[in-house]
Amino acid sequence: MSAQTVGDVGEFGLIAALQMRLKTTAAVEVPSGDDAAVLRLGADRLVVSTDMLVQDRHFRLEWSTPEEIGHKAAAQNFADLTAMAARPVALTAAIAMPAETTVEWVLGVVDGLVAEAEMLGAAVVGGDVTRAPAITISVTALGVPVGSRLVRRSGAQPGDVVAVCGRLGWAAAGLAVLGRGFRSPRVVVDAHRRPRPPYEAGALAGAAGATAMIDVSDGLLADLGHVAEASGVQIVLDVERLPIDDQIRETASAFNADPLGWVISGGDDHALAATFPAGATLPAGFVAVGEVVAGSGVEVPGYRHIGAPGFDHFRE
Amino acid sequence: MSAQTVGDVGEFGLIAALQMRLKTTAAVEVPSGDDAAVLRLGADRLVVSTDMLVQDRHFRLEWSTPEEIGHKAAAQNFADLTAMAARPVALTAAIAMPAETTVEWVLGVVDGLVAEAEMLGAAVVGGDVTRAPAITISVTALGVPVGSRLVRRSGAQPGDVVAVCGRLGWAAAGLAVLGRGFRSPRVVVDAHRRPRPPYEAGALAGAAGATAMIDVSDGLLADLGHVAEASGVQIVLDVERLPIDDQIRETASAFNADPLGWVISGGDDHALAATFPAGATLPAGFVAVGEVVAGSGVEVPGYRHIGAPGFDHFRE
């Protein structure tokens, strides 16, 4: 019998196995398993999240400028803080790269990291550089709660409204366009190159009483699946209410693709998905797309999804 | 004219160029460039450091168990906090790996990270897993000051005593042994596989009035060079006072190597080097090895060092 590989169990199987090995301490308020962990440091709470990007998997040197890659690396980490209703204070970045990487390229990545951080009042405070066969960028984002409450994945209750805020399917459409050798429509290609997470919306959702929230990075179905699992509920999406932006509809039409497929399973736009108590006034930018009921998993009545609900880094 | 590569400028040239691009904010008390950065979060201070390990550069699968690699990844980051006179609270880890990596191996690394953290009362609070051609482990260590003062690299003053605490040259001796195909002396091989930083000594040095401190990770000459540069001073080492442990002397004798070379330019043991005001009582474990004078750089009168003063990841 050969040993199980990470390819056999997949990204989420591996994460589940890893989390069983962790131990907690009194300083850990939210352990690994949410968008970000929360630590108590004396009087303050620290919200921390780590994400890694690998060349040819998360970005391609021929498709993105180094500045765009830096923006993306920062944005996907800051979006995790946003999804807790926290705001970023700083990030650290470790970059491994081949020796033939140009200094100019690395400085471009750093400029992108710095610019995305600066836009949010945060700073890049350090990191590491080393050598590796493929460029690998690991970012750790550090933040603090905006208000008094942080929003986890686990608080969704039957009767809650499910709502989304931000772009859905744009980055997936852009990736499809680039993958077929095109460079336009520019707006979706740019969305793939540089995500624009709805940074303000996380704190607004927290203040509006959101019961659960997640950053849509793996795809709406997959990420709402994480909320459903963490909360012990079922989420039912209303396919008619899922926002399909005109850009996505037009791109799908031009490329003979299913626009709803991009919206429902495309990640990398870093939209927010949240649940709110029935009757709550949704914050600006949020659109109701479904409801929480008793049960498990995510259902989309009337829609038959082809393929995986989202992206698995060890299994595509 | 072809563009400069990171191989051309080397690790420290690249870091210097990167640091010029960073911007600070009111929350940044110590920016990038020390062993760890320091952030102000409300009433508390957060000390943060990031280091990345790459397969076949920082560890070899045939030389170390996954648990040892996990211990090492945590230890080298925690040692950076120790060198600021801080203590660890938590770490995050991002691990990129080929799909054929066994789950058991990854769990072993996590067990090593968790065990090293637990030994210090800290927790592993999350991270990321993704796919890459070479196993790459990026750890971010998060800590808080032990006492009221943090110790930087930049405070050494002419007249100060230079002292070291912890193993010097052990990991380098172990690496030399393994590199020649041997597995013993076991004690130095084990030192390479799993460093044992003097975790208690950092806070003691801070309380004893250390004016500057650094984690010896690149080699004593190289790291004292960082202190000399940050402090605007010269450091003069007394070659007669450098501690050469019997293990190192015996291993060097058996392998026809220069024991002082390992002591003076071997990294990866994560000893501490610190400067103290003249006449200060050195904390337990510290040995005086030199003094701080006006000038620049590091001098070792009577010793002619062959080769680089330390390790450069883009230039060996």
Description:
- The structure is a homodimer of 316-residue chains.
- Chain A is an alpha+beta fold and 316 residues long.
- Chain A has two domains: 30-145, PurM-like, N-terminal domain (60s Ribosomal Protein L30, Chain: A), CATH 3.30.1330; 161-299, Phosphoribosyl-aminoimidazole Synthetase, Chain A, domain 2 (Alpha-Beta Complex).
- Helices cover 33% and strands 25% of the residues of chain A.
- In chain A, strands 1-2-3-6-4-5 form a six-stranded mixed beta sheet, with helices on one face. Chain A has a six-stranded mixed beta sheet with strand order 8-10-7-11-9-12.
- In chain A, a hairpin with a 6-residue loop joins strand 1 (28-30) and strand 2.
- In chain A, helix 2 runs parallel beside helix 3 (103-119).
- Chain A is globular and about 55 Å long.
- The relative contact order of chain A is 0.16.
- The mean pLDDT of chain A is 95.
- Chains A and B meet through helix 1, strand 2, strand 3, strand 4 and helix 3 of A and helix 1, strand 2, strand 3, strand 4 and helix 3 of B.
